[in-house]
Amino acid sequence: MHHHGYLWTGPKDRFDQEALRRPPHPEPPPAGSRLELIQRYREVAAEFPISDLPPLETAYWLIKPRSVVRGTWEEAKEAASWLGEQLAEYAPRFAADRDQDTNRLARLVNATAEQLRSGADVSYGFYLERPSYLSLAVVTCSPNWANPELTCPVA
At a CB cut-off of 8 Å and minimum separation 6, what does 18 contact? Predict the structure, then answer.
């Protein structure tokens, strides 16, 4: 078991494009469906696997391009440390004062290490100076507990 780290920052309105953050339905729309429904399905099917937008389900980071992996670690503690470094770097830009609290951030890092040791994924999101958003995730791989059929992006 190992862990992959992911980071995304960008405009909040782009982050809110939920259709591009969820995998397409396994079955395309039936023949005779409205043209706009078919076109939207094709757009999502083409964009979801290659988009750098954070998926709604954390495990789906594993099907994103290999280039979006920010790091890979064998030990949960190392992955949690990376997440802590990212939190420290972005904390001055967090929109909410409580999110900047160093004790709270340290607790998040400790909780992350525990969750990763148990095989779970972690995902955190923070509003930055308006109107931006930060998404951080660490995904357990080989296998992923939440979605074991997903393959490792760096294998």
Answer: 56
How many Å is the maximal CA-CA distance in the chain? 57
CA dist., res. 87 & res. 36, Å (int): 41
Question: Do the beta carbons of residue 125 and residue 94 sit within 8 Å?
Answer: no
* Sequence-separated (6 or more) residues with CB below 8 Å from residue 3: 72, 73, 74, 76, 78, 79, 116, 138, 139, 140, 141
Tell me phi and psi for residue 10, to 5 degrees.
175, -175
Tokens of 2: 């190992």
Ramachandran quadrant class, 17 (left: phi over 0; alpha: psi -120 to 50; beta: rest): beta
What pLDDT, on the 0 to 100 scale, is given for residue 154? 83
pLDDT at residue 19, rounded to an integer: 84
- Percent of the chain at pLDDT > 70 equals 99
* Rounded to 5°, angle at Cα 22 from 17 and 28: 110
